[in-house]
Amino acid sequence: MSKMKVLAVDDNRTNLHILQVFLKKLGHEVILAENGEEAVRKFETESPDLVLLDIMMPVMDGFEAARRIKGMTRDRWTPVIFLSALNRDENLVEGLDAGADDYLTKPINFVVLEAKLRSMQRSLSMQQVAIDSLHRVQAISDNVLDAIITSDDQGVIVSANLSAERIFGWNQSEIVGRNIAMLLPDEASAKRAGQPGGTPPAVSGNEQEVLARHKDGHQFPATLSISQVMLDNQQMEICVVRDITERKQAEQQLRANARQLQTYYDQTQAEQQLALRLMEKQLHRSGLRDRRLKYKVIPAEHFSGDIVAATRSPDNRFYALLADATGHGLAAAISALPVLALFYRMTKLNRTVQEIILELNQQLKESMPVGRFVAITLVCLDEQSRQGEIWVGGTPEAFLFDRWGRTTKTFPSANLPLGIVASSELGGEPIAFSWEAENQLVLCSDGLLEATNPADEQFGTSGLIQAIANTSPGDRFPKIEAALQAHQNGTPASDDVSLMLIDCP
Asked: pTM here?
């Protein structure tokens, strides 16, 4: 804390002037008041960091002013130092009882006062660090997707984050002080039937599915995990609740699709057909028909995990994703489905590339077995400002070409695929870039670069760049297709071939 805002209060103008000169010399901002009533009024409007307060004043004395000031400082500590000619012990006691934090007798020893101000500065700095830390924790809590609800050992709600308001429909002020049974009736019943006042062992520390209750009365499926902590010598419970309505609906739809597919296809082809059907339902989204986008996905004999997605957010940012999940058939499809679902959900919320990547990684890390991962290129373009971001992890490098087909920027594959390490270890910030008129961004999967000809030679990055060289933006996509077809010369692809060409206006 380099300087403080100090409220100096004294009915003697000479004393006030001396205090003002002294405090300004120390680098502090000074607010002046000549009686207790004025001090209380200026404290309310100016929010000073520290108060220097005389006792004997007209209108309102210092004792009453101190009591009122302390009554207004519930959220943070504001030190009050009495400066008074009254030096008897009972005056000191009365001042401290009124809420003062220190007491100096007049005439003022300015060396001692300066030392006390430095001490108060250190304390206020530590308070500010604590407040900032609390705000950071609160900001994190309020921006997670799950509801976080704290209750005491009787089930009375003590606090709730903003996601709890979104999920349950209640304002924080409406649920704090009420029993958690209003939100989680099944959980409260389990406690009453099992261990009154305590959490059943099967619930604490684990995640289970429950029915939660919304403000409007309807019940919805949710996952619940509970942690018990001791705070201020009192046992508290932290409940993390996630609304899984969409997941349940998706699961029901997947089960319905599986039953339908089993009716039409025999057992040996069921897995591959299911994978293709599920991916087809996900890939046929309106965003892929965007006028700025040209794309192609050529599946190999067995679906190998390539997916593409594109959409525009509510503020008209254009997002595109090209991904390649490990494995073949249904195993690859199951890895790819959550990527698509999260991509479309988070882009609707105008999330940044970094936020989407971290959420995708967290979900894949939690849901996929070891050895399964998804390579991804994710792009976000703001066409109005001609500014974009791109993140490449495990997929081939991406390219930005100018109107004549020359490479202006290369975006290397410098990050790990998603689902291998925890988000805290993932690293790798998105790369920011800008573009000129008629530039085009090219993304591809390794299936395109590794496509071979009859001599077992790969198409490679060189084949892609040569196909684009000296082409106009409108002719570029068919030129790449023709060059790839000519290179393969009838040789079937061993992996899915994906290509996205995005116009950068």
From this structure: 0.47
